Amino acid sequence: MRWQDQSETFALPAFDALQARLGAFERQKLQDTNGELPRVVISAACWRAMREDVGQSHEERGGLLLGRAYAGTGAEVIVAERSVASRAFDSTGVSLRMESGIWELARPLLKDGMIVVGWYHSHPNLGAFFSETDRATQRNFFRNAFNLGLVIDPVRNELCAFVGPDSMHVPDENVIVGEGA
Ligand SMILES: [Zn+2]
């Protein structure tokens, strides 16, 4: 399928609603972040699933990120709770192709406030960064202020996060990868 712009605007729940959903580790880590900039929390399960997906291939791989976004005091807090890997993946900036079945995989998970918060893809041994193509993809398909783009280089073991239509780079200290089961 071709990913269509999802430009509905959501009223984001308040940051307080997030605290109750986090484990002690993530809550503690969040206290050390800069609330003026976007903050990203990747659940342990989401991280594991993404690593499993991108780690299998030296081809570029990718998929959707599902989770919740919260209005922080200064900037959004985005929580990636689940990833849905696409067997087909191709992003050119003006088009983003994922397998047609990905919605069937994602749809049952979109409940209780869970939304598509963004996308992820891999740069095997190229380094984790947003290329001009990636910026165009983000701008065209993930243009909400809370939309998250993750890039993983499984070879160099790098992770980078970008948020919003202008692909603002999220500093490493504001990216929390959960631990635990
Ligand atoms: Zn890329």
Describe this structure in words.
The chain is of the alpha/beta class and 181 residues long. It has one domain (36-177): Cytidine Deaminase, domain 2 (3-Layer(aba) Sandwich), CATH 3.40.140.10. The chain is built from five helices and ten strands, in the order ααβαββββαβαββββ. The strands form two sheets. An eight-stranded mixed β-sheet has the order 9-8-7-6-2-3-1-10. The radius of gyration is 15 Å and the shape is globular. It starts with 14 loop residues before the first helix and ends with a strand. The relative contact order is 0.22. Bound molecules: zinc ion. Zinc ion binds next to loops. Zinc ion (ZN) binds at residues 121, 123, 131, 134, 151.
